[in-house]
Design goal:
Layout lengths: L4 E6 L4 E3 L11 E5 L7 E2 L2 E2 L6 E6 L4 E6 L8 E7 L8 E9 L14 E6 L3 E3 L4 E8 L8 E5 L2 E2 L6 E8 L4 E8 L8 E7 L4 E9 L1 H49 L1
Parallel strand pairs: 1-9, 11-18
Antiparallel strand pairs: 2-7, 3-4, 3-8, 4-5, 6-7, 8-9, 10-12, 12-16, 13-14, 13-17, 15-16, 17-18
Protein name: Roundabout-like protein 1
InterPro entries: Ig-like_dom, Ig-like_dom_sf, Ig-like_fold, Ig_I-set, Ig_sub, Ig_sub2, Zig-8
Pfam families: I-set, Ig_3
Length: 260
């Protein structure tokens, strides 16, 4: 069995099994467990009597993600995402779901006070590259609510270049939001703020560099390197001339030493 993806969650989490299939045409995406013959979902419809299941469909990305609320150890196993037309090559995805038991109350560490912090792959991004910013918020109570994103005071909304992915853990009492902006443009630069519904807030500054500024910086670095190489070569020539001069000056001295 060829497992393409492997996901691990703790019991009580919202588990998301990702599947991306484009150009469906008139076909539909089917989710099922390989250990069971009947489907869990067909398209957006749920075919089992369990309201914990939900299909997250993102049309422009071709995503048909299976989401399971309050996942438990009985949900662990291999899931299959496929197109209803079985004869179509490459239409099958196998996903392994692992579910861990939550730690017992006697072994749980003392919960840290509420906190929020933001991380980014880089604060300096070239035009055309991808901006990725993550916000991690913890809370004494759960759920922690939601996380909103702002750029220079303007609320961020999803579009063809902008996606917001969220993950929450009941055990760790944490919510994580990932903001991704593809094909970065100069106007994407600014102060990125993430704020929870509990008024926790933090920010970071993102700079978008144009190709001209990047090439200019690289050109400056190259000029400095060439200048250093030139100076080293000139220093070497000067040392050679000094050595040759001393040899010429000392040649008669060697002759006098031989006579004595």
């Amino acid at each position: 069995m060829d497992i393409q993806f492997n996901y691990t969650y703790t019991a009580g989490d919202l588990a998301t099994l990702y599947c991306r299939i484009k150009d469906l045409g008139t076909k539909v995406v089917v989710w099922r467990r390989t250990s069971q013959p009947h489907p869990i979902t067909v398209g957006l419809d749920i075919y089992i009597p369990d309201d914990r299941y939900h299909v997250q469909h993102i049309p422009y990305r071709g995503s048909w993600n299976l989401m399971i609320k309050n996942v438990n150890v009985n949900d662990a196993g291999v899931y299959e995402c496929q197109i209803s037309a079985k004869e179509r090559a490459g239409s099958r995805r196998l996903v392994l779901l692992n579910v861990l038991e939550p730690p017992s109350t006697t072994t749980q560490k003392t919960m840290s006070p509420p906190d929020i912090y933001i991380t980014t792959s880089s604060n300096f991004v070239e035009v055309g590259r991808t901006i990725t910013v993550m916000c991690n918020a913890t809370s004494i109570d759960f759920p922690t609510g939601d996380i909103d994103w702002f750029i220079d005071g303007h609320k961020v909304r999803e579009n063809s270049r902008t996606t917001i992915t969220k993950y929450s853990s009941f055990v760790e009492k944490v919510i994580i939001s990932k903001l991704t902006i593809t094909h970065a443009q100069l106007e994407d630069a600014g102060t990125y703020v993430c704020r929870t519904s509990e008024s926790q807030i933090t920010n970071t500054k993102i700079h978008v560099l144009s190709a001209r500024s990047v090439n200019s910086k690289r050109g400056t670095d190259s000029e400095e390197v060439r200048r250093e190489i030139y100076e080293i070569r000139m220093l070497g020539l000067s040392i050679n001339r000094i050595v040759q001069h001393r040899i010429v000056m000392c040649w008669p001295c060697d002759s006098l030493q031989d006579r004595t």
